[in-house]
Amino acid sequence: MHKIGLGYDIHRLEAGRRLVLGGADIPSGAGLLGHSDGDALVHAVIDALLGALGESDIGTHFPDTDPHTAGARSLGLLETVMGLVRSRGGEIVNVDAVIVAEEPKMGPHITAMKAALAPVLGVPETALGIKAKTNEGLGPVGEKRAIACYAVAFLKLPD
Ligand code: MG
């Protein structure tokens, strides 16, 4: 059978923090606040995968009270979730995502994000869609106070 999952995440931006999205380091004057590295794109992908498995969300699997995940690479959390996908006999058909960020420009970094994500997800880069858009200056994302990400994951699972 096939199952689809939807994920969403938003993190506040803080000046002087490292910006990590989709496992890629992006030069920026501000980065995402979070218990882990704040990688909202990876978090949205994780929730999409967990959703397709009928599992509870990322906060249940990786509580922000857990000292072991403080400052953790979100790609490492994604590896753990892929272990769960594989333990269920699942494989990813494709993942599609949208980053909503006013700045910096994400376009030049999408190749690096796909290169970081594809091996962890066990798919070719052609199975990954990552688009970026601004929020047209509207709301907290438009005012550069946050970055939001959406993702869907489509899985093939045993019948
Ligand atoms: Mg998050």
Question: Key features?
Answer:
single chain, 159 residues, alpha+beta, 60s Ribosomal Protein L30, Chain: A, five-stranded mixed β-sheet, two-stranded antiparallel ribbon, 7 strands, 31% strand, globular, binds magnesium ion
* Sequence of secondary-structure elements: EEEEHHHEHEHE
Structural class of the helices, strands and pairings?
alpha+beta
Q: Tell me the name of the CATH class.
A: Alpha Beta
Strand order of the largest sheet: 4-1-7-5-6
N-to-C CA distance: 5 Å
Low-confidence stretches: none
Describe the structure.
The mean pLDDT is 96. β5, α4 and β6 form a beta-alpha-beta unit. The chain has a single domain, classed as 2-Layer Sandwich (60s Ribosomal Protein L30, Chain: A). The chain is an alpha+beta fold and 159 residues long. It has a five-stranded mixed β-sheet. The protein has a two-stranded antiparallel ribbon with strand order 2-3. 30% of the residues lie in helices and 31% in strands.
In short:
With 159 residues, the chain is α+β, with helices and mostly antiparallel strands.
List the helices and strands and how they pair.
Elements: E1 2-15, E2 19-21, E3 24-26, E4 30-32, H1 40-52, H2 58-61, H3 74-87, E5 91-100, H4 110-121, E6 128-133, H5 139-142, E7 146-156
Helix pairs in contact: 1-3, 3-4
The structure holds magnesium ion.
